Amino acid sequence: MKNPVPQAASLLLEKLLLLVHVRPLPSGSSGEPPPAPAYYDTSCFKRGDLLEVPRTLFIHFGIYLGENRVAHLMPDILPAFTGDRRQIQQVVTNKRLILGVITKTASIRVDTVEDFAYGGSILVNHMDRLFQDQVLGSEEAARRAEKLVGATAYSLLWNNCEHFVTYCRYGSPVSFQTDKFCETVKMIIRDQRSVLASVLVGLASIFCLGLAPSTTLPTIFIPFFLWMAG
């Protein structure tokens, strides 16, 4: 996919998305995820279905493979250090996820429905209405997902779990969450009444992520780049 904004603006947007999507662990937490419910009724799921799990601030996506298995893309630092499948297959902790986002490493993995859903409710094929006649056959969607299982690059903007499932089920890797976030940022920056808010966002990124060219330069140039992209 061709990036619609220049690289400097893209970098800042990814860091903003990281701040929005990843919440710090509670004080004293060991970093292990809470136990998932013991059972989900999978009788209504069909191989190739697109599953959505709404989170507090975003939605996680996967492709159902049958037999209580879901393929989904997860940021994860561990595959960069080991090929031990037993270690990698353990449920991804917040620490592994955050480091995966930062280093842009991930894996397309197969987990149980319980581990995939992480305690949330599941929507089935909820995105089909947005693609209408573009829905591929269920078996084709499942085969695409199975073929991609393994380590992969990760990007909050250009290669996330939504890109993965839309490619598998609809043949086109898109992310409506990313598009909506980018449009919101552009709208805020374009609005002359929100200049102060734009400055504060830039200063916040420098404060949270450190004073460096990757934060300072985007803070200066991102309004111009986003205006040009519009």
Automatic annotation (TrEMBL):
Q: Which residues form the LRAT domain?
A: 50-177
Alphabetized InterPro entries for the sequence:
LRAT, LRAT_dom
Q: Which GO terms describe its biological process?
A: retinol metabolic process; visual perception; vitamin A metabolic process
| Enzyme superclass (EC) | transferase
PROSITE patterns, alphabetically?
LRAT (PS51934)
- EC numbers on record: 2.3.1.135
User: Where does this one sit in the cell?
Assistant: Cytoplasm, Perinuclear region; Endoplasmic reticulum membrane; Late endosome; Rough endoplasmic reticulum
The record's annotation in Gene3D superfamilies points to: endopeptidase domain like (from Nostoc punctiforme)
Key words, A-Z? Acyltransferase, Cytoplasm, Endoplasmic reticulum, Endosome, Lipid metabolism, Membrane, Sensory transduction, Signal, Transferase, Transmembrane, Transmembrane helix, Vision
Q: What do the Gene Ontology cellular component annotations say?
A: endoplasmic reticulum membrane; late endosome; perinuclear region of cytoplasm; rough endoplasmic reticulum
Catalytic residue positions: 161
Topological relation to the membrane, as annotated: Single-pass membrane protein
Q: Does the keyword Ribonucleoprotein apply?
A: no
Per its UniProt record, what Pfam families does this chain match?
Answer: LRAT
The signal peptide here is 1-31
MF terms (GO), sorted A to Z: phosphatidylcholine-retinol O-acyltransferase activity
* Functional pathway: Cofactor metabolism; retinol metabolism
Its recorded reaction(s) are: 1,2-diheptanoyl-sn-glycero-3-phosphocholine + all-trans-retinol--[retinol-binding protein] = all-trans-retinyl heptanoate + 2-heptanoyl-sn-glycero-3-phosphocholine + apo--[retinol-binding protein]; 1,2-dihexadecanoyl-sn-glycero-3-phosphocholine + all-trans-retinol = all-trans-retinyl hexadecanoate + 2-hexadecanoyl-sn-glycero-3-phosphocholine; all-trans-retinol--[retinol-binding protein] + 1,2-dihexadecanoyl-sn-glycero-3-phosphocholine = apo--[retinol-binding protein] + all-trans-retinyl hexadecanoate + 2-hexadecanoyl-sn-glycero-3-phosphocholine; 1,2-didodecanoyl-sn-glycero-3-phosphocholine + all-trans-retinol--[retinol-binding protein] = 2-dodecanoyl-sn-glycero-3-phosphocholine + all-trans-retinyl dodecanoate + apo--[retinol-binding protein]
Is Iron there in the keyword field? no
- Which residue ranges does UniProt annotate as crossing the membrane? 195-228
Family, per entry: Belongs to the H-rev107 family.
Free-text function comment from the UniProt entry? Transfers the acyl group from the sn-1 position of phosphatidylcholine to all-trans retinol, producing all-trans retinyl esters. Retinyl esters are storage forms of vitamin A. LRAT plays a critical role in vision. It provides the all-trans retinyl ester substrates for the isomerohydrolase which processes the esters into 11-cis-retinol in the retinal pigment epithelium; due to a membrane-associated alcohol dehydrogenase, 11 cis-retinol is oxidized and converted into 11-cis-retinaldehyde which is the chromophore for rhodopsin and the cone photopigments.
| Name used for this protein in its record | Lecithin retinol acyltransferase
Q: Where does this protein come from, organism-wise?
A: Probosciger aterrimus (Palm cockatoo)
Name the encoding gene, please: Lrat
